[in-house]
């Protein structure tokens, strides 16, 4: 009973003592972390120096191996297939394109490479399409857009036959039917260079060409539910329409990415593209929304356990981004509500999300192959490492539960398997 | 999410408060409870009871440090549950080990719960702890407040288990002497 009295009395210990004890434990953990990170940084430096001093020899790797550091998962990174390009052209007829007009294959960015037809007999360049191309959709960069020749018909899309699409879309099926994620695809309109976007329901696994949205073109089939009806001008202020074609329903967001977001503190941000990346091996889909300058956000959803991650460019706070998403009515397309934010949805881990983003955006820039390697792990923390000893300031690092860390040093990314024990120690910091 | 925001959710009777609390402090509270109960199911229940208690106590309370506030609730509930359970069978949790170690602090005195104001005793222990070394203080709190194992404490503070044991022993002896001088028991 007496000892229980002490136990009970400890309830009344000063908060400052309890807090100090808690913080003291955490601070000690931080020391462990700094040590681990510093050791890694030292290894990297040795690796780099060895590589520089002894070119042609794999001394650096030997050094690393000797220290029981392993460059992790490199084989997996190599093995993973490149992510699929969702931004593919939709060929609406089977008429082959003339060689003189080469469609762009990637629409995440505007087409930049288009062959100019050879000079004709008059020595003039011509971008006119042959008349037999009336039923064909061509994709021309802005500079190449010219008026359609007289007699050239408006393109007609056989949208009742989605199977006509020549380029297969990812066959990955989300396990959650409620997950209404869409792939956005931009298209350069003939005669105007105005960008339209079709957003195809991922679940249907099909693309169809979007109906045009001006007075000269109408959907050839299906119906538009919204404020407009087929044949009318679509109200540009009301940019979202559900379009049904046969058994398929599609979400068509006319101005999905044309909307400019104006914020006094941020200036103007123009969203200009959405990319999605699919990796079947990792069983994950990653989305990045591209802004004018850089990616704004990357959202990743793991299909096998329905968990999602979102990484936001360091330029924007989460609240700003959320506001922006809401303002743009993008939340439906992004399925934001179903997404956890940051690591495992734990917002307490957001303090260094910038660091995480910095890494991920670079990985993304390098290759989505590398990025997908991350998806095989469970992200537990992202932080900026500072080590006076090794001169590391704000060195971004992400830590994975499976026992490896990835960090950035001198504009290079390094991944090391430090073991689960070390990572567990680090996890406790958070 | 910051503690203040979570507390605000409680005050607004927003059920999100519970989920945010769980996300942020679920593991922390579970550890406290499991240290005491050594039973996963019971610990989970205690943590859930903690959320309920927090829900019922906010408003009126507006804790500055939510972790401590919740930790105290969990600790209280866990000890309470253990005592009820113990009437049937004595377990070998860290709580029991802590208890037997603390016996030496006041075992010489013939003290009953009723005769000592726990709050005063707690304040006295706080005063005593403020005058011992930081390592001793933190080890003591982790051992007897959070009921962490010796091994855990040793890993927290980069000490050997033997050193932790020695440190705790000396702290207990010092506490015993201090409490005797303060007149808590003869």
Mean pLDDT of chain B: 82
What is the global morphology of chain B? globular
Largest interface: A-B, 29 and 48 residues
Number of helices of chain A: 9
Sheet with most strands of chain A: 4 strands, antiparallel
How much strand of chain A? 15-25%
Structural class of chain A: alpha+beta
DSSP strand content of chain B: under 5%
Radius of gyration of chain A: 27 Å
Number of helices of chain B: 9
What oligomeric assembly is this protein in? heterodimer
Q: Poorly predicted ranges of chain B (pLDDT <50, ≥5 residues)? A: none
Uncertain residue ranges of chain A: 55-321, 327-380, 387-391
Q: Which secondary-structure class do the elements of chain B indicate?
A: mainly alpha
Q: Approximately how much helix is present in the residues of chain B?
A: over 70%
Let me know the largest β-sheet of chain B.
Answer: none
| E-strand count of chain A | 15
What's the SSE pattern of chain B?
HHHHHHHHH
- pLDDT average of chain A, as an integer? 41
Descriptive keywords:
heterodimer, A: alpha+beta, four-stranded antiparallel β-sheet, 15 strands, 22% strand, globular, B: 186 residues, mainly alpha
Task: Set out the fold topology.
The complex is a heterodimer of chains A (430) and B (186).
Chain A: H1 2-9, H2 15-53, H3 59-66, H4 74-79, E1 182-188, E2 195-201, E3 223-225, E4 240-245, E5 248-253, E6 260-263, E7 267-270, E8 273-279, E9 284-290, E10 295-302, E11 308-312, H5 318-327, H6 331-334, H7 353-366, H8 368-374, E12 379-387, E13 392-400, E14 404-409, E15 412-417, H9 420-429
Antiparallel strand pairs in A: 1-2, 3-4, 4-5, 6-7, 8-9, 9-10, 10-11, 12-13, 13-14, 14-15
Chain B: H1 3-11, H2 16-37, H3 40-57, H4 66-86, H5 94-106, H6 118-130, H7 134-144, H8 150-156, H9 161-181
Helix pairs in contact in B: 1-2, 2-3, 2-4, 3-4, 5-9, 6-9, 7-9, 8-9
């Amino acid at each position: 009973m007496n000892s229980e009295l002490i136990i009970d009395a400890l309830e009344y210990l000063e908060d400052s003592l309890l807090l100090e004890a808690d913080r003291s434990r955490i601070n000690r953990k931080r020391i462990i972390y700094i040590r681990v990170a510093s050791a890694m940084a030292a290894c990297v430096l040795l690796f780099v120096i060895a590589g520089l001093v002894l070119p042609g020899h794999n001394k650096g790797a030997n050094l690393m191996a000797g220290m029981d550091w392993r460059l992790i998962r490199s084989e997996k990174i190599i093995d993973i297939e490149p992510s699929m390009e969702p931004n593919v052209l939709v060929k609406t007829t089977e008429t082959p394109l003339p060689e003189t007009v080469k469609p762009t294959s990637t629409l995440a960015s505007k087409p930049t490479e288009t062959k100019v037809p050879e000079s004709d007999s008059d020595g003039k360049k011509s971008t006119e399409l042959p008349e037999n191309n009336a039923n064909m959709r061509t994709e021309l960069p802005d500079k190449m857009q010219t008026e359609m020749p007289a007699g050239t018909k408006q393109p007609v899309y056989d949208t009742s036959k989605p199977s006509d699409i020549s380029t297969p879309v990812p066959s990955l099926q989300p396990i959650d039917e409620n997950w209404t994620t869409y792939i956005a695809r931009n298209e350069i309109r003939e005669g105007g260079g105005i960008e339209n976007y079709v957003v195809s329901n991922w679940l249907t696994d099909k693309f169809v060409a979007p109906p045009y949205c001006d007075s000269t073109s109408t959907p050839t089939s299906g119906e538009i539910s919204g404020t407009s009806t087929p044949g009318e001008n679509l109200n540009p202020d009301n940019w979202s329409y559900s379009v049904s074609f046969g058994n398929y329903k599609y979400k068509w967001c006319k101005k999905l990415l044309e909307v400019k977001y104006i914020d006094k503190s941020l200036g103007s941000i123009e969203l200009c593209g959405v990319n999605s990346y699919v990796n079947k091996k990792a069983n994950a889909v990653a989305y990045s929304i591209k802004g004018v300058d850089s990616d704004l956000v990357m959202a990743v959803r793991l299909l096998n356990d329905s968990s999602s991650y979102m990484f936001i460019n360091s330029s924007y706070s989460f609240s700003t981004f959320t506001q922006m998403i809401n303002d743009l009515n993008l939340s439906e397309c992004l399925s934001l509500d179903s997404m956890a934010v940051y690591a495992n949805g734990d917002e307490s881990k957001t303090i260094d999300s910038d660091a995480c983003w910095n890494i991920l955006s670079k990985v993304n820039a390098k290759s989505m192959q590398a990025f997908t390697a991350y998806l095989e792990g469970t992200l537990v923390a992202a932080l900026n490492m500072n080590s006076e000893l090794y001169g590391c300031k704000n060195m971004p690092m992400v830590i994975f539960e499976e026992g490896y860390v990835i960090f950035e040093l001198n504009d290079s990314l390094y991944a090391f398997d430090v073991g689960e024990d070390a990572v567990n120690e680090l996890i406790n910091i958070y | 999410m910051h503690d203040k925001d979570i507390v605000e959710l409680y005050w607004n009777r927003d059920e999100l408060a519970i989920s945010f609390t769980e996300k942020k402090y679920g593991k922390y509270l579970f550890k406290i409870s499991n240290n005491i109960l050594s039973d996963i199911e019971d610990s989970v229940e205690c943590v859930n009871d903690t959320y309920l208690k927090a829900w019922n106590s906010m408003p009126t309370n507006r804790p500055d440090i939510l972790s401590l506030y919740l930790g105290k609730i969990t600790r209280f509930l866990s000890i309470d549950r253990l005592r009820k359970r113990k009437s049937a069978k004595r377990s070998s949790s860290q709580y029991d080990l802590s208890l037997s170690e603390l016996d030496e602090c006041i075992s010489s005195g013939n003290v009953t719960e009723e005769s000592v104001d726990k709050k005063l005793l707690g304040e006295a222990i706080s005063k005593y702890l403020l005058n011992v070394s930081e390592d001793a203080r933190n080890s003591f709190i982790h051992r007897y407040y959070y009921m962490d194992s010796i091994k855990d404490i040793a890993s927290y503070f980069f000490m050997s288990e033997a050193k932790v044991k020695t440190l705790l022993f000396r702290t207990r002896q010092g506490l015993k002497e201090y409490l005797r001088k303060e007149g808590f028991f003869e």
